[in-house]
Known about the structure:
Helix content: 10-25%
Amino acid sequence: MRGITSLLAARASRARASWLLLCLLMATAPTLLAGTIDDPVPSAMPKPPTLGAHTMLNQSDGQGSTPAVTSAVNTQESGSSLLVLIAGYAKNPDTPTDSYGNQWKPVGEPVVYNGYDERFNARAYLAIDAHGGKGHTVQVVKDGAPEGEITIPFIEIAHAGKLQDVAQNYPTPGVAERATNRLRRAWQGFNGEPDSTNTALTSGTVTTTGPATLVAVWLGDAYVYSMSAVPGDGFKVIDSYLQLPSNSGVQAAVAVRQVDTAGTYSVTWHGTPAQGAILWLFAFQAAP
């Protein structure tokens, strides 16, 4: 009898414990459910920036017209940043306009080309969070020298809500390098050989805080008609104008690199024949 009594008591104790646990769960269930329902849903991560549409307009000297209008490209309706460079006669200083009415802001001051009596310069402009769509064009009015040479790269950086960093510099061959190049040119000219002098020109640095699209621009300054401009450091050329007609033009190359992590970056351009170059390096990122 004593064993049966102990067994019944144990069963009764377990039943009371189960009943108390059930009551506790019933009391706390609304709170748990409410907490589950009310917890904020994590917002989707922004898309990383990437290269979008791009083109480059080139008008040779004496054959230009006004307005200078780029080829039409198809850009995103929203969420992109747009970059335009204008290189040519300084007396054509107008700000670019585009077919979607974006507001263009200059990036720094115009950079004057060396060796041309300040007759030529290069400028950069941005439209952040721009409007776009099919048949997107950029144009520049050329009141000062309508027939003059001009080069206009137009680049879309998709999903880019901000310009994180920018570097602009104007490296040129050093004194010793220029002297060596003159001797080499003289010797090659004497032998009827092409100019094989070369330069390695390094941009300034930009720093990113995450995934970014880096856009590098090279604008050479020598009075030459055929040249190369090859970027290193993981950059790939997307547009260039390096074989000029006999009436001349503004040489240019644009290169892009995608980076996935925060860091500090630069680009070195290797060119033949030797010349200086106006360089820009832009780092675009998604908006925070």
